[in-house]
């Protein structure tokens, strides 16, 4: 909430004074990059989800904010119970606040859990409950449920394209989702929310 309260114009001014275009940080720019990457890598099996993202785009938000894009526990620094920082800003985007909340829902629902099989279901339920509690903070947003679903799918497709790029570059062990379980979790989440069937090349 503190992040989303920061001044977007101040952020853009600072970015542009550093020699970058503020336009690179819009959701439109991020989505265009996603589409171009999928095309470049030949990830045609993701086309149904990308087409869905194009056609189901929520109406333009009147209150775009600075979104982290990957706001989850491993990117939050805490010292003795006090927040000290947030790291890994590679997905920073000026967008609807639902982008951050949808990302949390998708990450907690899909990230591979490396614990004994007997604990997986209980831990996943706990994580999903935490994500739902967190996402309730955006309950006042127009089209809340549709937006949360949309940005969950967006996050999953971003993760799948990232896996595809890592594999194309020979980095077969790079990234938390770069495993058969990670990819299956993302694909299943997309199918659960949209009914679409997508995949990655072998």
Describe, in plain words, how this protein is organized in 3D.
The chain has 202 residues and is mainly alpha-helical. It has a single domain (8-194), classed as Alpha-Beta Complex (Aminoglycoside 3'-phosphotransferase, Chain: A, domain 2), CATH 3.90.1200. It is 52% helix and 7% strand. The strands form two sheets. The chain has a two-stranded antiparallel sheet. A two-stranded antiparallel sheet has the order 2-3. It is globular. The mean pLDDT is 90.
Q: Give the C-level CATH assignment.
A: Alpha Beta
Structural class: mainly alpha
Q: Count up the domains.
A: 1
CATH fold call:
Aminoglycoside 3'-phosphotransferase, Chain: A, domain 2
- The dominant shape is globular
Cα gyration radius (Å): 17 Å
CATH architecture: Alpha-Beta Complex
Helix content: 40-55%
Q: What percentage of the residues does DSSP assign to strands (E)?
A: 5-15%
Strand order of the largest sheet: 1-4
The average pLDDT value, as a whole number, equals 90
Discrete helix count: 7
How would you characterize the largest beta sheet?
A: 2 strands, antiparallel
For the secondary structure, the number of strands is 4
Distance between the termini: 40 Å
Reading the helices and strands in chain order gives HHHEEEEHHHH
Low-pLDDT runs: none
């Amino acid at each position: 909430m503190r992040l989303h309260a920061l001044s977007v114009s101040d952020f853009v001014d600072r970015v542009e004074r550093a020699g970058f275009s503020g336009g690179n940080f819009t959701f439109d720019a991020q989505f265009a990059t996603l589409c171009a990457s999928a095309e470049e890598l030949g990830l045609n099996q993701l086309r149904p989800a990308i087409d869905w993202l194009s056609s189901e785009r929520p109406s333009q938000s009147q209150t775009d904010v600075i979104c982290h894009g990957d706001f989850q526990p491993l990117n939050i620094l805490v010292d003795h119970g006090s927040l000290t920082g947030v790291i890994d800003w590679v997905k920073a985007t000026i967008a609807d606040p639902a982008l951050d909340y949808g990302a949390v829902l998708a990450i907690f629902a899909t990230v591979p859990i490396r614990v004994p099989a007997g604990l997986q279901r209980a831990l996943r339920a706990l994580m999903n409950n935490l994500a739902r509690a967190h996402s309730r903070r955006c309950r006042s947003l127009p089209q809340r449920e549709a937006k949360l679903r949309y940005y969950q799918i967006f996050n999953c497709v971003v993760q799948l394209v990232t896996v595809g790029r890592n594999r194309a570059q020979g980095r077969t062990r790079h990234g938390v989702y770069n495993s058969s379980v990670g990819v299956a979790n993302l694909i299943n989440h997309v199918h659960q929310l949209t009914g679409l069937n997508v995949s990655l090349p072998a």
